[in-house]
Amino acid sequence: MAPLLDHPEIQRMDQFIQHGHTTCLKHSLTVAYYSYVFSKYLHLDVDYESLLRGALLHDFFLYDWHIKESHKGLHGFRHPKIALNNAKKYFSLTSIECDIISHHMWPLTPSPPRSKEAYIVMLMDKWCSLRETLNRSIVVLPFEKYS
């Protein structure tokens, strides 16, 4: 993941707030971390590189979604496609990474994930978003004691 993290466009994600006081970059790194720990805890047979890269890129939309003028339409519905287009512009992606980025907002968006990795990131994204929005830990998942 180091080459991705060093990319200047990835670093721009640290300029935008995602939930509460959490930046887009920190949120994406947290989702990647929990996706990895969750998968290891359950001994899941997944493509860990695609899991981590897809998690890092799932919110690669590069605008402040809190400012209506910064984007068109409803952010929750549109940002997966914007993130995917941005990711394709700067990086070569696997089909699993595309699946993760495109479907992480399901069921808000109509198309469900197709891969195990995309389901994992979708679930961990919701978990991390809830914690960031509430700005506290409301409950500890069993696998968190290993992190």
Folded structure, characterized:
By secondary structure, the protein is mainly α. The protein has one domain: Hypothetical protein af1432 (Orthogonal Bundle). 56% of the residues lie in helices and 3% in strands. It has a two-stranded antiparallel sheet with strand order 1-2. A hairpin with a 2-residue loop joins strand 1 (17-19) and strand 2. Helix 5 (75-90) packs antiparallel against helix 6. The chain is globular. 35% of the residues are buried. The mean pLDDT is 85. InterPro entries: HD_domain (IPR006674). It comes from Candidatus Cellulosilyticum pullistercoris. Pfam families: HD. This is HD domain-containing protein. Residues 26-126 form the HD domain.
Task: Give the low-pLDDT segments.
Answer: none
SSE pattern, N- to C-terminal: HHEEHHHHH
- N→C terminal distance: 19 Å
* Total number of strands: 2
Mean of residue pLDDT values? 85
Helix share bin: 55-70%
CATH T-level fold name: Hypothetical protein af1432
In the CATH scheme, the class would be Mainly Alpha
Protein name: HD domain-containing protein
InterPro entries: HD_domain
Pfam family, one: HD
Organism: Candidatus Cellulosilyticum pullistercoris
